[in-house]
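Do me a favour: review this protein, sequence plus structure tokens, and tell me how the chain folds. Record follows.
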Amino acid sequence: MNNEIAPVTEMLPVFVRELRRYGVAMAILFAVIALAGLAVGILWPRSYTASTTILAQGSDIIQPLLEGRAEPTGVTDHVGIARQVVFSRKVLNDILEHGGWLAEQPSALEQDRLMEQIKDRTTVASARPELVQITYRDSDPHRTFEVTKRFAEQFIEESKAAKERESREAFEFIDSQVNDYHKKLTDAEDDLLKYRSAHADAQPGSATDANARIGALRTQVEQARMSLMEQQSRESALVAQLSGESEVTAVQTRAGLYRAQLIELQAQLDRLLLTYTDQYPDVVRTRMQMQDVQRQLAEEESRRNQPAAAGGQTPFDNAQFNPLYQELKLRLAELRREIAATRSRMSSSEGMLDAELDRSRRIAASEGALAELTRDYEVNRDIYQDLLRRRENARVSMVLDQEQRGLTFRIQDPAILPLRPSGLRLAHFAGAGLALAVAIPLALLFALVRFDPRVRSARQLERATGISVLATVPTYATARERLRDRARIGLAFLVVLGVFAAYAFTYWLRLRNQ
């Protein structure tokens, strides 16, 4: 048999005829499919979604003013921190209680299962680095709203608490380090003080002072040695000159000598009175010498007035010492006194130099221990001062976090009560059910007409046999058959009308429940 596709004009009457024939079956199939779609839409769990957006605001007018003095606690991965906070057990326990799940007193295993379901229905995302969006979906719109709102509140509270806790722990840690290093610094000061008290030479600058003192004493010793050599040379010259002079050079009375000496003392007294007062020791001593000379002069004059036999003047009374010899002898005596003083000064300088060298050796021996103690003290002092500055900076940072002056979180887009479910709703299932209820019966009817091997038209018979058909005899329905056809059509119409009535009733109930 030829299976060529018949033209649409030939298939359309056959299609209508078969539709009338199987109208009730197709109506029932339509009703079953449409009501099945409606039932699936009614039984399909509705899903409501609510979301909230949190802004992590880091800019603040106080931050540039306190730059370098305080470091507000910052968070870079806001989404990661939000996931850790939102999905923490503490927050999820609060969500279970706030969402009403704990009202049925579930077991620990059921609570864990509920937490996992809440995690699966919760999404934490970030459209921008400073924005955190929390989305939650549930079958209850009120619970969806409350849970989403509570998630945002818990995230902000936990973030603030974490910031405050972090800054407080940082301050407490630095404060403990400050106390530790204060004790170390005090111990280092005590050790340094004890060492300096036990070693008098272990003082700052002792080595420099000792070196300067040694240099000065060496200079004094060298100068004293040079002076001594010069004075000894002058002594040799004076001794040689003195050996060539006689002690007595002329004859002169003793009275004349006393008068000359008295004149010399009077001149010396006049010079002293020009500078000093009468109580000055040299003035008093000169006057006493003058009195002695005057007394000796008076005795000499009284002795000269006596005869020689009575113990008066002798032949040697007019002898006079050589003035040059006396002057040289006086200069030699003064020079020898200077030599003795120079030797004494040089000996004293050498003794002080030896003592200073011993002191320098003691300073060098104690310099290592003193340097180590000083180094420990300076290191502890520098660290302590740095920790003091850091503690104050940490204190300011802690106050900033407590007063929420640093990184702040605020709800940019609050959660709202979802009025319509998200995803597949009843309207979607109802529309799909109606579409399938219409398409499936028509598709089955088309397949029946297309693949039925029976001859349904004259043209189909001509194509199948190759014989021309001269005439066709149409079928004629009796009154009973027409009545039965109308009954089938009415029944099919009622079935379809019942389906639409069910759809309308469901829609009315949905509006009423809302």
